[in-house]
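Good morning,

Attaching, inline, the backbone tokens for the sequence recovery test we're adding to the shared suite. The designed sequence is right after.
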């Protein structure tokens, strides 16, 4: 714990544990989507690290799409207001979509995304989230593939940020100053 970012962050889920879980999820998705054409819809920016590792753990032909949303304005509280800032590059009709998220907290972002993507007539839509923070849920979201359930702490690392920083930590940590 000597790097400049790690002095602000305590390890919650180690790099090894994250990587092992990503491999398990990848194997499960590989089994479930046999014979189907899978499209991973990565929610920018938080899910990028997870989505890229997960994509490499899935042994199927797949395509990657990126969807930018903003539900946050720099602090540690969700505002509940969700906007699409960058849309996917292809029509989603007829595709098997797997939305890849970093964390489901209040669930408001994911509810918005589900509704938005369902309106584009895909063949199916499922949800894969690395983390779930059930203590703060405001709406029920059924997570088809879930990495870890965590307590009500603000976390950073492995894609998750505080004020755009700490995304490049290889583990999931608790931000000490929340
Ligand atoms: P929700 O709409 O409240 O479910 O929030 C989802 C989004 O808020 C996530 O995609 C994250 O970008 C962000 N978020 C929620 N909790 C945390 C956290 O503990 N650390 C960093 N970002 C978070
Ligand atoms: Mg996010």
């Amino acid at each position: 714990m000597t790097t400049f970012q790690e002095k602000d962050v305590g390890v919650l889920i180690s790099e090894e544990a994250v990587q092992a879980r990503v491999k398990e999820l990848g194997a499960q998705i590989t089994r479930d989507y046999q014979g189907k054409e899978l499209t991973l819809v990565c929610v920018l920016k938080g899910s990028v690290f997870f989505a890229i590792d997960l994509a490499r753990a899935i042994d199927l032909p797949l395509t990657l799409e990126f969807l930018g949303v903003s539900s946050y304005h720099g602090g540690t509280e969700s505002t509940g207001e969700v906007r699409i800032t960058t849309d996917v590059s292809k029509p989603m009709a007829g595709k098997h979509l797997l939305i890849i998220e970093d964390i489901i907290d209040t669930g408001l972002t994911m509810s918005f995304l589900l509704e938005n993507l369902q309106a584009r007539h895909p063949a199916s839509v499922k949800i894969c989230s690395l983390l779930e923070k059930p203590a703060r849920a405001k709406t029920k979201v059924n997570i088809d593939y879930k990495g870890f359930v965590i307590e009500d702490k603000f976390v950073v690392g492995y894609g998750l940020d505080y004020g755009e920083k700490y995304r490049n930590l290889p583990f999931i940590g608790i931000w000490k100053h929340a």
